[in-house]
Fold this protein.
Amino acid sequence: MAVKRFPVTLTINGQKIVREVEPRMLLVHFLRDELNLTGTHVGCDTSQCGACTILFNNKAVKSCTVLTAQADGADIVTVEGLEQMEAGKLHPVQQAFREKHGLQCGFCTPGAMMLAADIISQHEPLTEDSIRHQLEGLLCRCTGYENIVRAVQHAAEIAHEHQTSEEAAQASGG
Ligand code: FES
Ligand code: FES
């Protein structure tokens, strides 16, 4: 008997996507297998590693923990969409991970960057401890986390600089 499929409509990286999906299809598999957005990685089958993290309605979510059917109507950003959030420029998180060498093998990096994007979007004062606390749920076997923590801190600084210069440009009518 054919498996019943469910219609879903999602916005992914700014693009409206309409599909029919099997009820048990995980969002991470939908992104990778149906949309070829393979930047979102699968690192475990126990919801622990965080390699599959995306932004789901602006919050970092492990996409292996969500059924695609549950995501109907959601606004999703994957690692491929980070640049679009900055109108074609490197996102502060991308720039910071590059400048602070926040990666080695790169396997955890898409998830780490999406988690970082969520952390800096909260505009909360960040300390090393608070960053480490918020990075819980991300497993990185290479870096020892030191440079990831530095990258998150640096990304927050870059985002703040961008915001300050935009405000200055607006105030001067630019
Ligand atoms: S693949 Fe989602 S948490 Fe590991
Ligand atoms: S850089 Fe290799 S797992 Fe994080």
